[in-house]
Amino acid sequence: MKIVFLFLQGFHDCFNIDTKRHRIIKGPKQAQFGYTVQQHVAAGGEKWLLVGAPYEMNGPYQTGDVYKCSLSKRTNSNGCSKLNLGRISLTNVSERKDKMRLGMTLTSNRKDNSFVACGPLWSYECGSSYYSTGICSRVNASFKFSRTIAPAFQRCETYMDIVIVLDGSNSIYPWYEVQAFLINILQKFYIGPGQIQVGVVQYGEKVVHEFKLSDYKSVEEVVKRARSINQRGGEETNTALGINVARSEAFKQGGRRGAKKVMIVITDGESHDSADLQQAIEDSEKDGITRYAIAVLGYYNRRGINPEAFLNEIKYIASDPDDKHFFNVTDESALKDIVDALGERIFSLEGTSKNGTAFGLQMSQAGFSAHNVEDGILVGAVGAYDWNGAVLKETRQGKVVPPKSSYTQEFPEELKNHGAYLGYTVTSVVSAKNGRLLVAGAPRFNHTGKVIIFTLKNSGNLTILHSLKGQQIGSYYGSEIAPVDIDGDGITDNLLVAAPMFFSSGLEKGKVYIYRNRFILEGALEILNGGQNARFGSSLAPVPDLNGDGFNDLVVGAPLEDDHKGAIYVFFCQHNRILRKYKQRIAAADLAPGLQYFGRSIHGTMDMNDDGLVDLAVGSLGAAVLLWSQSVIRIYATVRFEPSKINIFVKDCQRGGKDVTCMSAIVCFNITARTAIHPTQEIGIKYNVSIAERRFNPRAILDNPNKLQPQNLTLFPGEETCEHIYFHVMETTDYARPIVFAVQVGLQNPDHGPVLDESWPTVVRTELPFWNGCDEDDRCVPDLALQSMTDLMTRNQFCAQPVQSRGAFCHHVSEQGTEGSLRVIEANRRRMVVDVRLENKGENAYNARLNITYTRNLRFSSLIVKDNTDIKIECYIEDKLRNEKICNVSAPFMRAKTQVIFRLEFEFSRTVFLEHVRVILELLLTCLFMFIPYFKRDSNPTRYEIKSELSLEEPGIIGPPLNFTFQIQNLGYFPVKDLQLNIEIPEMTKNGNQLLQISDFHIDQVSVIGLNCWNQAQQVQE
């Protein structure tokens, strides 16, 4: 019995992403709800969908936000609520959250079920400038804010704690001029969180804190308070006391860690406690306080006193050098003239930090992309270094900022004006040899795009190992990158690099490049049959195994397809490669009207509806779509027959008044799930059976014609059920070809429930053979004997006849000697006959054939079977130009222990005359010759251990020579044609490391004709 499996395309729709049953979660379009999506498991195991809405409002500001959407069946409406992450702030920072685009980047961490949401346009105020450094928020599994991630953030140059020490003794006059100076200088300061704080201390004989550093948060508040400061008075000027109190108290009352400490001392006379002044200055130096000192000479000028000693004291108070920190004015009214100069000198403390990155990261937009790594999070900063971009990292121990020089080799200075946008996307791959490597895209590099593969140490050392370059200007190559682990072994098999704006056939179709190990370009994914501006590759989502074949799969978004409605494409993977033709296209129009930009974001890593299958989340404009996977099943159909062969000699029933052979087919069905399925789920299948007889008079017919119609069954997974199908076999002479019994299966309702595994056959064709009448081994051994004789007389027979006219001929022939095979043809003879006896002394002879070849002076007349027998001989001409007949003997077989006697009649030609006639009878029988091979293999050495650290950088010897000897010999009696011997020798590992190289080979040809050899490089798995 032979079984043939057929795959019928179109009999079922074998796609396992359900487009009929899905869930659409709607949100505000104006907030760009659906820009990003992430599947999420919260504390306690509850499943949520996170949806980014980067234009969401929080109060008066368009901060952006992230929604959490419950997937519980008990939830009414869309079940979404804002997390209000836009309200989270950095302390001591004058931040600007408006249009920060929080939720534009969203990434989750499966290890601790936390997630990170980024607002790359988050800005903060520094002086008169705003720096868009970006910010990210990590949220734990309970949706509680965990920490802020801002690796590009740097304290403002105006991050200062300024204490103004005012001399309020009686000698200061008029006070309103001092107060006016105080107000003017305060209005020059950038007061606010993360910038300048101001405190005021007034002294004379005693010291009074007018207000502390932390009392007021804006210029308006400080100026208002300054207007109410009155002169305290006093007969003495205790400047040392005022400085010491400011140092020891004022800077600690609201002072900030890391802020620059600045003291401004304004006085009009020598101190009465000058003995303490040296200690006060030394203590101030130790505390890192920068001191500006202003000498008001009004008192000295009004009394004509030499101010030299006073000026020397004030210069001593001021920090070095004096020309930057010392001021003197003629009187109190002249204080207003130094306001601008003092402000400029204070702000001259601005500058760059030691690593030279203070200005390079000011507009970095860190968080434009993000990726979780083992010890922190990697963020892309597209605006860093004049929009060339950078990659930063935040760990528990702090931020990691590589120096700008790390990128110079791949991003030269002469191309910096192009704005490479490095960090547009970041991810990582895992190499068997090198472990985890980081990957970042720069889609605008040199207008064609670039991807770098690199390592980044927490010390800030960034090393670029490899780079990949785009092929087309403006294609945005590197804007999306995704690693794919096809076989789930933790090692990256393919790196995908998208160029969603790739231009083809006059349209912006998009393209996704595929790189295999060692970052060698293997091919690309393209949608060739669609003429649309699709931006295919705008989103890439490697997903776990969808169809149960043991290999992970891929989903690619094309959000501009179908006039911006969008679509996604599902690609299956097999044996460490991504199949180039997509398996399923899901268009927005197939799901619901009104969807736009469907496929702008995709995430699929987990089961969202508790059926054990991986589901997809797809973002669109104002909506997030949940697509459920369907179980993939196989329907096993088997057929066995009773009896197992057709015995035409046994007619055990009647149909239509004729004796026939009755048979039954037992058709059994079993359902096996390739993916998860509930064991009690009922599955409705349909099947129909048929006998594949393409002839007017079929050899076999079903007893019940209704069985030809589709039949329905309901099964549980793992359950088997069998049906009996009864049929009968008619009398036939065609015994050689088996009868084919076909069973076609499908699902009753393919739009709901599980789907059929498209790699599994839907038609099973089982052959039912005829019994050949031979031994149990199903092999017949015939023994054919062929005898023939003609009616032409030999010369002796002819001459023995009493005819006088033949005397001379017979006398001449007798003198020649032997008779041999010579026959005599009489002058009046017009035909000749050959009597033939064919006997089968052995078992049934199948496909026995008689070839009759004769000379041109004969014409075949007839073949007549002489005795009563059921053996039939049918002859035909294969080539009309040849004198040959081919006759089938009792097709399809000649029975055992039978014989047939027949006569061949020929007429002599009247136009062709030859000196001889020849009739050749050849009996042909299909034979099977057995080939008895002998194969021997020797290797020396028999085993050699390969060290993992060895590699062959250039041709050479890395180990001992290995000698292989192969011997093959034919021990049978018959020659063998077209014999092929394949010898596989591992040459390279899958990572491209050389194992062996063939240095020489030699062939000893003993008796071999036409020997050809060739080689093909192969890789082996490590």
TrEMBL record:
Entry keyword set: Calcium, Cell adhesion, Disulfide bond, Glycoprotein, Integrin, Membrane, Metal-binding, Receptor, Repeat, Signal, Transmembrane, Transmembrane helix
Membrane topology: Single-pass type I membrane protein
Ranges: FG-GAP repeats: 16-78, 352-403, 463-524, 525-580, 584-644
Keyword Ribosomal protein: no
Annotated Gene3D superfamilies: Integrin alpha, N-terminal, Integrin domains. Chain A, domain 2, ntegrin, alpha v. Chain A, domain 3, ntegrin, alpha v. Chain A, domain 4, von Willebrand factor, type A domain
Main subcellular location: membrane
Domain VWFA, residue spans: 161-342
One Pfam family per UniProt: Integrin_A_Ig_2
Signal peptide span: none
Compartments where found: Membrane
Family: Belongs to the integrin alpha chain family.
Protein's name according to its UniProt entry: Integrin, alpha 11a
Taxonomic source organism: Lates calcarifer
Gene field: ITGA11
